[in-house]
């Protein structure tokens, strides 16, 4: 799978309250509605700046805080192609894979705001088209590759009725 | 090779001789969802083709985050949860029963050696009972509700050895804030924290829950303790069945062993907007406070209410400050009434609200205004956490919160002890 898009850069410890505030998430299961408020506390106009396929690029511990699955879903429904970070909080990481949002661990110091990126998931490489640099991706555990390939955990269960690894 | 507590529990529940780094599929003993996460889990359950719950006695939904419902949207989601209960006969706690992380331990269904998943990040709280309990998302929750299983990567563990005795006026909350400040918000990511030592054995179960509750604030998957007489007494008091405690082997392998002497510890405060942004109370004393909050799954237990009441008894809160009290459960609320604590709070000028999450997560019950400072016994002070990103949240112990409510500014509680 090859993804292409522009980078929106954030810092370390972007928590789930910043991704989607509790004041919205408890109200509705309409993810298109939640998507409009994605990252609002860090950048009030963020939703309007997204071109479908763009990347969120961040430092370490992305998605720390609550277990709300609305966080990766809001990002996915805002049409972000993938989240790229130095590291992820574990619940967010699981939730992203389960809901089919690609999450990529790599050295994000080599990516600047606005850079154009090409992500080759099967080769495990990010090509920074702006700087010309190649950045290796940390591989996913096999269980997660299986779930992603099935299109998320819901599809996996639809197919097998239970866990099938 | 020896095993840590979590390696042992995951081995027992998966039937695999498991060590850190391995991936296992394990049986779960109890599965919990709350009103912020269960509705999405119900949606996933349906989309997955789920027809039946694997065991209705092992699944519980709790309405605590927005209880009672503040608006129509939330009411619709609560209704969805109640309909699921009616259809599947699962355990259920409706509004007023309390915060999930207090009602689950009080249900007697979780104890030493249990494996629990909850769609709430502070599910790690039950680690105080020697259980492996961890937070998951709604889709993982739905998978567990259907299959009674979930996959786990066996984590490495960090062992915290806590020596010495806590000084007067210094509590479990101060200790855990200190530890988080020291190891930072992602210091234990992908790992389990094991807490041991004299300072832990000395704590009541209420104090231990506070410590285990905040393991996630250092990124940990779980915060575990060994079981002792206090653990068994707690489980027995709440009608729990026989559980088999799990001890770490002496030759277990840890990612790190960190030793601390707690005997010089001072009351601690986490400053806005991260939990690891900690300071001694003396460094922030004098900061004006507009709202004080006593409650939540971190510090809304009976011992917490008793400590705060000891300070508030016969006194009035500062005119600048409002105080909101939310007992962690209906049981605690009742005990606090019997002991006269609620009367003390109300006479001091507090607003007592429904047992549950209270104002912790910004859905209702006390949303601060722009530029206001809040001091709370909760576990998170992220920007916008309480429903307004222009407010400032400080975290502290029940004693510090009570002392600050009286002073109208952050105050050291030690003179009261
Ligand atoms: S009290 Fe706060 S931290 Fe605890 S479960 Fe409720 S919202 Fe979450």
Structure overview:
The complex is a heterodimer of chains A (165) and B (417). Chain A has 165 residues and is α/β, with parallel strands linked by helices. Chain A has helices at residues 16-19, 22-25, 31-35, 46-49, 70-77, 90-98, 142-149, 153-160; strands at residues 2-9, 55-58, 82-85, 103-105, 116-120, 125-128, 133-136. Chain A has one domain: Aconitase, domain 4. The model of chain A has no long low-confidence stretch (mean pLDDT 93). Chain B has two domains: 5-260, 2-Layer Sandwich (Aconitase, domain 3); 269-411, 2-Layer Sandwich (Aconitase, domain 3). Chain B is built from 15 helices and 18 strands. In chain B, the strands form five sheets. Chain B has a five-stranded parallel beta sheet with strand order 4-3-2-5-6, with helices on both faces. A five-stranded parallel beta sheet of chain B has the order 16-15-14-17-18. In chain B, helix 2 packs across helix 5 (138-147). The N and C termini of chain B lie far apart (47 Å). The interface between A and B is large, with 43 and 55 residues. The complex binds iron/sulfur cluster.
Q: Which spans of chain A have pLDDT < 50 for at least 5 consecutive residues?
A: none
Shape of chain B: globular
How many individual β-strands of chain B? 18
State the helicity of chain A in percent bands: 25-40%
- CATH architecture term of the largest domain in chain B: 2-Layer Sandwich
> What is the chain-wise order of helices and strands of chain A?
EHHHHEHEHEEEEHH
The biggest beta sheet of chain B is recorded as: 5 strands, parallel
CATH topology-level name of chain A: Aconitase, domain 4
Helix count of chain A? 8
CATH class of chain A: Alpha Beta
Q: Within the largest sheet of chain B, what's the order of strands? A: 4-3-2-5-6
Q: Report how far apart the termini of chain B are.
A: 47 Å
Shape of chain A: globular
Uncertain stretches of chain B: none
Report the biggest beta sheet of chain A as strand number plus sense, adding barrel if it closes: 7 strands, mixed
- Strand order, biggest sheet of chain A? 4-3-2-1-5-6-7
List the bound ligands: iron/sulfur cluster
Supply the number of structural domains of chain B: 2
Number of helices of chain B: 15
CATH architecture level-2 label of chain A: Alpha-Beta Barrel
């Amino acid at each position: 799978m090859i993804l292409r898009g522009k980078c929106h850069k954030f810092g370390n410890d972007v928590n789930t309250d910043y991704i989607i505030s509790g004041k919205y998430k408890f109200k509705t299961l309409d993810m298109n509605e939640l998507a409009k408020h994605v990252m609002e506390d860090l950048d009030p106009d963020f939703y309007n700046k997204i071109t479908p396929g763009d990347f969120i690029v961040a430092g370490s511990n992305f998605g720390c805080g609550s277990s709300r699955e609305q966080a990766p879903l809001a990002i996915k429904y805002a049409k972000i192609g993938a989240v790229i970070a130095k590291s992820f909080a574990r619940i967010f990481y699981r939730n992203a894979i389960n809901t089919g949002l690609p999450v990529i661990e790599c050295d994000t110091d080599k990516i600047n705001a606005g850079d154009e990126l090409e992500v080759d998931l099967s080769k495990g490489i990010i090509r920074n088209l702006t700087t010309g640099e190649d950045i290796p991706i940390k591989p996913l555990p096999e269980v997660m590759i299986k779930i992603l390939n099935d299109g998320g955990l819901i599809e996996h269960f639809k197919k097998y009725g239970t866990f099938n690894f | 090779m020896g095993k840590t507590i979590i390696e042992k529990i995951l081995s027992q529940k998966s039937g695999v001789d498991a060590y850190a780094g391995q991936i296992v599929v394990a049986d779960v003993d109890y599965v919990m969802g709350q009103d912020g996460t269960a509705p999405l889990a119900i949606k996933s359950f349906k989309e997955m083709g789920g027809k039946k719950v694997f065991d209705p006695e092992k699944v519980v939904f709790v309405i605590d985050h927005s209880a009672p419902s503040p608006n129509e949207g939330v009411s619709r989601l609560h209704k969805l949860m109640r309909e699921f209960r009616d259809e599947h006969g699962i355990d259920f706690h409706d509004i007023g029963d309390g915060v999930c992380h207090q009602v689950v331990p009080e249900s007697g269904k979780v104890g030493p050696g249990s494996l629990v998943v909850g769609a709430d990040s502070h599910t790690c709280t039950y680690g105080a009972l020697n259980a492996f309990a961890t937070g998951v998302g709604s889709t993982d929750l739905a998978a567990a509700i259907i299959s009674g299983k979930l996959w786990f990567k066996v984590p490495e563990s960090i062992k915290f050895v806590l020596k010495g005795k806590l000084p007067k006026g210094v509590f479990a909350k101060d200790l855990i804030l200190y530890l988080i400040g020291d190891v930072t918000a992602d210091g234990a990511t992908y790992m389990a924290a094991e807490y041991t030592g004299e300072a832990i054995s000395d704590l009541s179960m209420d104090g231990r829950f506070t410590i285990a509750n905040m393991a996630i604030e250092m990124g940990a998957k779980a915060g575990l303790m060994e079981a002792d007489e206090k653990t068994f007494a707690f489980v027995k008091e709440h009608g729990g069945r026989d559980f088999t405690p799990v001890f770490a082997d002496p030759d277990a392998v840890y990612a790190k062993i960190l030793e601390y002497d707690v005997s010089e510890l001072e009351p601690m405060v986490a400053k806005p907007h991260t939990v690891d942004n900690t300071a001694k109370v003396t460094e922030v004393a004098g900061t004006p406070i507009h709202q004080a909050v006593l409650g939540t799954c971190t510090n809304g237990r009976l011992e917490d209410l008793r400590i705060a009441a000891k300070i508030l008894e016969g006194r009035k809160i500062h005119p600048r400050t409002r105080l909101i009290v939310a007992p962690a459960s209906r049981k605690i609320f009742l005990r606090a009434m019997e002991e006269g604590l609620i009367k003390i709070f109300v006479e001091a000028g507090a607003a007592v609200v429904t047992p549950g999450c209270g104002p912790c997560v910004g859905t209702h019950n006390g949303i601060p205004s722009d530029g206001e400072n809040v001091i709370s016994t909760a576990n998170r002070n992220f920007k916008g956490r309480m429903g307004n990103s222009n407010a400032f949240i400080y975290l502290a112990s029940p004693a510090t919160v009570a002392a600050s409510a009286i002073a109208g500014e952050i105050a050291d509680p030690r003179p009261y002890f």
